């Protein structure tokens, strides 16, 4: 579904990604792990159309999409949940959800809303609540729900468990597993490398903007290099 081939990208003349290549197959959960500042978020932003690659190619379903604007990527089924969630704090839960479905026809929006409410019943209960009055875990639920309203085929998740209590972290990973069961492909950036690699079909390790290790989730969990650098073992 997704292929990055020797992608370079950065900000204001500062190169962050160096020849990054990775693949995500349909129906997979693929992890991208690395230290802070390694280029994980830059990779997701490049895929999502928020940052144009300076060289290399980004392909979705064999079609080049590098440099297309973010709203066009959403129309093509590529949707990102940012690390800081980027909710509209002054709007209600319902209004935030419908903002995620701006590319969908009206009938489809109603169906998508019903599906999100099935996955997150709390969002139905709190439909009229302002987003900025919700707890961190509830806001993360809303951010993921809003992304699902766009009916993504590829969901990009940037640090979905950051700042959450352990019980809520477990809920986030259970949600990602359920999203996979729905047939949605996931590229997951997470600091919680242990839980991420236990869940992921495959993974990539990025350091200083370069992918230097890849393998199945189980292979990376067994890698001495990964265990020392990211699992504290």
Notable characteristics:
single chain, 233 residues, alpha/beta, Rossmann fold, 10 helices
- What is the terminal-to-terminal distance? 34 Å
Query: What is the annotated CATH architecture of the domain at 1-75 and 185-233?
Result: 3-Layer(aba) Sandwich
CATH superfamily of the domain at 1-75 and 185-233: P-loop containing nucleotide triphosphate hydrolases
Q: Classify the beta-strand content into a percent band.
A: 25-35%
Rg over CA atoms, rounded to whole Å, is 17 Å
The outline comes out as globular
Instruction: Kindly provide the name of the CATH class of the domain at 1-75 and 185-233.
Output: Alpha Beta
Structural write-up:
With 233 residues, the chain is an alpha/beta fold. It has a domain at 1-75 and 185-233: 3-Layer(aba) Sandwich (Rossmann fold). The chain is built from ten helices and ten strands. The protein is globular and about 45 Å long.
List the helices and strands and how they pair.
Layout: E1 2-11, E2 14-24, E3 29-33, H1 40-47, E4 55-60, E5 63-64, H2 70-75, E6 78-81, H3 93-99, H4 106-119, H5 121-125, H6 136-149, E7 154-158, H7 166-181, E8 185-189, H8 193-199, E9 202-207, E10 210-216, H9 217-222, H10 224-230
Parallel strand pairs: 3-8, 3-9, 6-7, 7-8
Antiparallel strand pairs: 1-2, 1-4, 4-5, 9-10
Helix pairs in contact: 3-6, 4-6
């Amino acid at each position: 579904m997704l292929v990055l081939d020797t992608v370079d990208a950065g900000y204001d003349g500062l190169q962050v990604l160096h020849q990054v290549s990775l693949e995500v197959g349909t129906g997979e959960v693929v992890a991208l792990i690395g230290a802070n500042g390694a280029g994980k978020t830059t990779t997701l932003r490049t895929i999502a159309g928020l940052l144009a690659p300076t060289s290399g190619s980004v392909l979705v379903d064999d079609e080049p999409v590098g440099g297309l604007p973010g709203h066009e990527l959403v129309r093509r089924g590529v949707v990102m949940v940012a690390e800081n969630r980027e909710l509209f704090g002054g709007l209600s839960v319902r209004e935030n959800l419908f903002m995620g479905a701006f590319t969908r026809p009206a009938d489809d929006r109603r169906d998508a809303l019903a599906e999100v409410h099935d996955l997150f019943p709390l969002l139905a209960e709190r439909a009229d609540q302002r987003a900025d009055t919700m707890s961190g875990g509830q806001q993360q639920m809303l951010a993921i729900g809003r992304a699902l309203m766009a009916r993504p085929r590829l969901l990009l998740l940037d640090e979905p468990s950051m700042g959450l209590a352990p019980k809520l972290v477990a809920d986030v990973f259970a949600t990602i597993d359920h999203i996979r069961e729905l047939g949605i492909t996931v590229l997951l950036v997470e600091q919680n490398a242990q839980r991420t690699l236990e869940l992921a079909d495959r993974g990539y390790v990025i350091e200083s903007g370069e992918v230097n290790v890849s393998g199945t989730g189980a292979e990376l969990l067994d890698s001495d290099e990964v265990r020392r650098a990211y699992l504290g073992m």
